[in-house]
Amino acid sequence: MNLNNATISELHQLLISKAISAKELTKHFLDRIAEHDNQINSFITVTPDIALEQAKAADRALASGKHTMLTGIPLAHKDIFCIDGIRTTAGSKILADFIAPYTSTCIDKLNNAGSITLGKTNMDEFAMGSSNESSFFGPVSNPWDNTKVPGGSSGGSAASLAASLCVASTGTDTGGSIRQPASMCGLTGLKPTYGRISRWGMIAFASSLDQAGSFTRTAEDAAILLEYMAGHDNKDSTSLNLSVPRYTAALSKPLAGVKIGLCSDYFKEGLDSEVENLVLEGIRELGRMGAEISEIELPHTKFSLSSYYVIAPAECSANLSRYDGVRYGYRCDNPVNLEDLYKRSRSEGFGTEVKKRIMVGTFALSAGYYDAYYRKAQQIRRLIKNDFISAFKQVDVIVGPTAPGTAFPLGAKTNDAVSMYLQDIYTIAASLAGVPAMSIPVGLSKGLPVGLQLIGNYLEEAKLLQVAHQFQQQTDWHKQQPQSFM
Ligand code: GLN
């Protein structure tokens, strides 16, 4: 079997049948990172010692029969998840030397299940961006074409999987940061319902929107990972106190009778015509497989970008106030007084995009402007949420494009904030409403991957995964890989 396109479930079979050891598998991916990552810059930190130590433990667990589906599976984690003793940077100079003193709940659960940590992946600074070009550690290239962006902000996690430098990876999605890079790198990306996975130990960007999720080769692998990552956590008061379903159990149900909603607002100006054709063809395929397709309306979706770019900066301005140069993180040289210490540590430690958002957020929250901006944005958010609530009375899943185009050239949008923000035009509404959503490969346009977005009702990850899995039984788009990394 070619290890470079194998799924979690295939590798699990190899591991339990002793066809390969966790140590061999781990070495295979560490060697690939050493050989190939210089072309794409997808890792900020590689952790070979920890990985090999975990592989030893995994081999012992496999030998004794006390294993899970994830025992011995090599993963890469977005560098936004704290892991005890490992540098955790959030892609920022301000945390460039920060060694986390604890492990985030989500990674802890994956570790406890016996998975292997290969390293920490590159990302836009504090997860702000759509192209992975705002990282202090340099941009990430798309493995399909290294002159193009991988999408962002979880670009390193997406690129590392597309280049087969890991078996699956973790990411976070605040407004599209799992789905958009999954679309651009030809992967299955899942953002679960807000609160489904604990945020504890995940460096905060916009707390009412941030949600952890995964990049995988298949919907089946996404279901496997979610079973381990999800669940209530006393340390995160927004995590949902509900039992975790067996997502893998629902995958094999056929699509007959599943109601799929199509929103014409998702197919208006701004959408690349080839992307549109591939997405529509993907939807027709779902119809041929037995799904019932009907039109739905999401009348307030058109305001989602405006609402998001008030709420996300407002929350980030509060969350990022903790980086003061005093407690941890970067501190400027020779401060003359406390004010100078704050000012220069933050001016020197944060990059341009982060500073811009802190300023916008502080402005939106300031007395006299709060009602006009922040309150208004929250009211719009409620209307967007209500749109989804009524749409999901008619349909089970809403489908459309994930991103308006395919991967764009590095540097093409770095000086055009609005055009960069528009990358998330189709993904942000689900984040504001807190509903689960995913992106799955639906074709190639001029050799670059295109994603189909599936949005589900609250806690209906199983339904999304079922639709995605059934689609992947009929199509091969998720099996396509970039030539130079096969
Ligand atoms: N691109 C969006 C932003 O820059 C979303 C980022 C994200 O989901 N983390 O805010």
How is this structure best described in words?
This protein is α/β, with parallel strands linked by helices and 486 residues long. It has a single domain (3-260, 393-485), classed as Amidase signature (AS) domain (Amidase signature (AS) enzymes). It has helices spanning 8-16, 22-40, 48-64, 105-112, 155-162, 179-185, 219-229, 273-288, 304-319, 338-349, 352-365, 371-394, 417-421, 428-433, 461-474, and strands at residues 43-46, 74-78, 116-121, 168-173, 188-191, 211-216, 259-263, 292-296, 397-401, 437-445, 448-456. It has an eleven-stranded mixed sheet with strand order 1-3-2-4-6-5-10-11-9-7-8, sandwiched between helices. A hairpin with a 2-residue loop joins strand 10 and strand 11 (448-456). It is globular. It starts with 7 loop residues before the first helix and ends in a 12-residue tail after the last helix. Glutamine (GLN) is lined by residues 127-130, 153, 173-177, 205, 312, 424. Residues 127-130, 153, 173-177, 205, 312, 424 line the site of glutamine.
